[in-house]
């Protein structure tokens, strides 16, 4: 009987210890989850250069995460900017690939390519890659296969040139200004050439390898063409005020590929809203945080566009904003 009572006591003690351990673990899990059951997350954000468009994308991404419940207390962000240096970009991506981040977020094509090349186990969620498949970041938009997904800002070049036909009809020759080192720019220029070839409009190219070459290239194009077109290109975009000024002095319009280019002096664009695109990307990140595998989160091609016109530039060029544009977003003085 004594042995039986001793055995019962032992079993009861084990149950109490087990219950206490489970309770402690459960409490720890709740504490780690933060408010609303959201688990604290660490995010690395990488971009090649600083410009207004990239800032809007980054802020749109972070603002949307906050809306989804990821407050400052639950979100650790490590932001890295390569300041236009490709060597520095590769080094940053190497460090991020070896980090303990939950995800890495890259802005634009060069940063996404640099991180994917690391073949890291950390998932990549990219913002604003013009052609993810063409850039080698994934083999299929619908079925991500390189631990990466995100948003594509496929530039509606047809709509931009149609806008130019309305605002500045009679353009016979376009100047195409871009950096051949950025795949997003190269792919967009290919589309631009295909469109212009199809409608029988001439074009002259000016390519740059660094930002110091942009202004002179713009001056040259402005003297030889009727208008300048700039694709999504972080290098040229960073020098857009100089491009716009060179074109303005020659009384030639510049059509850009982002609202920030227009804010910097280009005449107009048809484009995706940069903050909106950042927000859509944050929703993809949230899906991953909630348990969906990256391979099951298709990349999103943005197809909601806005028309943006710089009314100050239009006035200086003597261009009246046509009523047929409806209600474009007007910026500038």
How would you describe the overall organization of this protein?
The protein folds into two domains: 38-154 and 273-304, Response regulator (Rossmann fold), CATH 3.40.50; 157-272 and 306-331, Rossmann fold (3-Layer(aba) Sandwich). 45% of the residues lie in helices and 19% in strands. It is built from twelve helices and 13 strands. It has helices at residues 2-33, 52-67, 86-97, 109-116, 157-167, 183-199, 214-224, 234-238, 240-249, 259-263, 274-289, 311-317, and strands at residues 41-47, 75-81, 103-107, 124-127, 148-152, 173-179, 202-208, 227-229, 254-255, 268-272, 300-301, 305-310, 329-331. It has a six-stranded parallel sheet, sandwiched between helices. The chain has a four-stranded parallel sheet with strand order 7-6-8-9, sandwiched between helices. The chain has a three-stranded mixed sheet with strand order 10-12-13. The radius of gyration is 26 Å and the shape is globular. The model is unreliable at 1-35 (pLDDT under 50).
């Amino acid at each position: 009987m004594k042995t039986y009572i001793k055995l019962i006591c032992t079993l009861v003690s084990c149950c109490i210890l087990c219950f206490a351990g489970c309770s402690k673990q459960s409490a720890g899990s709740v504490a780690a989850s933060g408010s609303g059951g959201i688990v604290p997350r660490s995010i690395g954000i990488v971009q090649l250069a600083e410009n207004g468009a990239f800032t809007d994308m980054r802020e749109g991404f972070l603002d949307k995460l906050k809306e989804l419940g990821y407050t400052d207390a639950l979100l650790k962000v490590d932001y890295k900017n390569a300041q236009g240096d490709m060597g520095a970009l590769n080094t940053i991506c190497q460090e991020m690939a070896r980090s303990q981040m939950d995800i890495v977020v890259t802005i634009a094509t060069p940063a996404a390519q640099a991180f994917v090349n690391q073949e890291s186990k950390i998932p990549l969620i990219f913002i604003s890659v013009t052609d993810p498949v063409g850039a080698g970041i994934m083999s299929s938009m619908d079925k991500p296969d390189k631990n990466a997904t995100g948003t594509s800002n496929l530039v509606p070049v047809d709509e931009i040139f149609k806008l130019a036909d309305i605002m500045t009809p009679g353009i016979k020759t376009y100047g195409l200004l871009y950096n051949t080192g950025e795949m997003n720019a190269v792919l967009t220029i290919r589309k631009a050439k295909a469109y212009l070839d199809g409608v029988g409009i001439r074009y002259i190219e000016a390519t740059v390898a660094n930002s110091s070459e942009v202004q002179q290239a713009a001056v040259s194009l402005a003297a030889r063409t009727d208008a300048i077109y700039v694709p999504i290109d972080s290098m040229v975009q960073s020098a857009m005020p100089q491009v716009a000024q060179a074109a303005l002095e020659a009384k030639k319009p510049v059509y850009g590929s982002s609202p920030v280019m227009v804010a910097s002096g280009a005449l107009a664009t048809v484009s995706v809203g940069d903050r909106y695109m950042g927000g859509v990307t944050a929703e993809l990140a949230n899906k991953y945080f909630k348990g969906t595998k990256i391979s099951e989160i298709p990349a999103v091609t943005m197809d909601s566009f806005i028309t943006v016109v710089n009314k100050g530039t239009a006035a200086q060029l003597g261009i009246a904003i046509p009523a047929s544009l409806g209600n474009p977003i007007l910026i500038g003085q």
